[in-house]
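Need Polyphosphate kinase's 3D structure for a figure. Predict it.
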Amino acid sequence: MVEMVEQSEAAAALLESRESVAITEQEVEETPVDLKVPELYINRELSHLQFNIRVLEQALEENHPLLERLMFLLIFSSNLDEFFEIRVAEQMTQLKYGREAVGPDAMHPRTVLERISEICHLTVDRQYKILNETIFPELQKENIHFIRRRLWTPEQREWVQTYFHEKVVPVISPVGLDPSHPFPRLVNKSLNFIVELDGKDAFGRETGMAIIPAPRSLPRLIRLPDELCDGGDNLIFLSSIIHEFADELFPGMTVEGCYQFRITRNADMTFDMEEVEDLANTLRGELHSRKYGDAVRLEVDQRTPEELIEFLQKEYKLDESQTYRVDGPVNLTRLMAVRDLVERNELRWKPFSPGVPGKLKGDNIFEALKQADQLLLHPFQSFTPVVDLLRQAAKDPDVVAIKQTLYRTGVKSDIVNALVEAARSGKEVTVVIELRARFDEESNLHLAARLQEAGCLVVYGVVGYKCHAKAMLIVREEGNRLVRYSHLGTGNYHSGTARLYSDYSFLTADQDVGEDVHKVFQQLTGMGKIQKLKKLYNAPFTLHAKMIELIRREARLAKSGKPGHIMVKVNGLTEPKMIRALYEASAAGVKVELIIRGMCRLRPGIEGLSDNIQVRSIIGRFLEHTRVYYFGNNGKPDVFCASADWMERNMLNRVETGFQVFGKHGERLKRELDYYMQDNCQSWELQADGSYIQNHPAEGEELFSAQQALLDEFAK
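Structure prediction for Polyphosphate kinase:
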């Protein structure tokens, strides 16, 4: 355990070791601080990598159930896959085409890639050490076994061999390498084997080498029948099966070595929006090419001979810094199947039932919203009222129109089913689907087709701007007037993620809000000048400027001797102008409390500049996803929820909505922000050098988890 901690500290030190802040207290006093100097900014990619490391740390958290600790270790793998597919791929593409771009930290892409390689090699080694020396042994104690080939009993081996012939052989296609069979084009992140062969095949060929792509249709984990085992849950890897019986795929030849490997490719889809005439058709074409982008990472079994590793490196044009030798399966993410193969509830999170406010339990949510606005916090409170509102609208003969944005949702989700029902019943249904939601593009294309077939008007937003806003508008005929009901949220219209991500939902019958939401939809579906909104702020038009204005107002209050207070909870903080405004506010004496889950370019704790800024990240059972902005305003606070993080892409290059919350709902948001600032067990504190330190209760202090407190308050 000590060695693991030392490795973690080494990774953190490498992450920011050459980024020490070059501003001393004397310099701040004597000269105005240039807020654009690179030393004031943490590199975005390295900050993102730090978040992934914090996720991995949860695998060692003994207060978490054991199977959930395994899940955190696997989520780290999934996160790292995407990090390489998108972040690393972007840096490599810049170098490849000579388009090097630097951020406010002024770090060259080549330097960024060097740092990433150093940190990732340390951290991946540590990940497998945690798996092999901590997680697997503890699972073994709980009678959950991942059985290696050498431990199979004769009966088990016979069963596995039958499985190999019946399930694997019919779908597997080994490829011998020779002039007529060049190295095959392997799919991104697929499991493959490189095989050393001796002898000649039926045609007299003596190739010496072959590739076995593992069929993607087959599970990577297989459960052995209980009658063949001495109790417990017994699992084997597909890779073990292929290793064991690889020689049967090459009859008459000798398999001298079989080693698994995996290639990660550039999966970012880029195309010139100005040249796009039909976004949907363009995306359909790009989706296939995503599987075969340029290679960015090679993972190999650490027992693979060096000459084979060099062969693979040459084939994929990768070097040693991009090669990862691992002590275990190369495709750890696929181990998540253990959730479906092992039923051990005592080793999982305790189940709970999300709360539902009494006023939203009835059959007429419209009447409830006429009486009062409703604010829900998922997953602690149920997402069902949002779905029920749409269902009621679909069936209500007085509802004449429904408008909805969809970013990530399922093709067969309850939300989509209700929209389909509404359209088929003759209502005017308009759906704005963001096709370019990363890794959900294919699902969204199918979703668009289903909605169009039902009679919905489907549009894809605005060329050049992703539609990331979360908004629903229902228009209902009541008497001789049309009444608007709105839903605005910080998260997606996805019932599954609403059980895993923390997000706010705001339901209202406020007609000014409804009119604003209507105008936002007009901008998305039609064309015209910017429309003035009464109660909403939207990106890329007014949200960014409003936030800068409110930050500066707190600075003016502090300079005049009044208390200044800012609290922000978002997923990422990278936008330079907002960071500079926060630095200025801190220097003026404003108390700034930032709850940033992932990337953060701002450096807290710089004497005389950001020593009034505290930055923390919460990592726990649920993925923190809410976006909340609080400005003290000398005792008359302004509180906002939004779909937008404080990042360039959200504030300047996306369609986003921010909405102000008043009265008791604003007070509630402040109280819940305070929970996160009080958290002393699932919170991590950002340091000036870019590293993070986990918070622990002080001596005599009680353990306090914000997520647990919210569960206790709202759920059953």
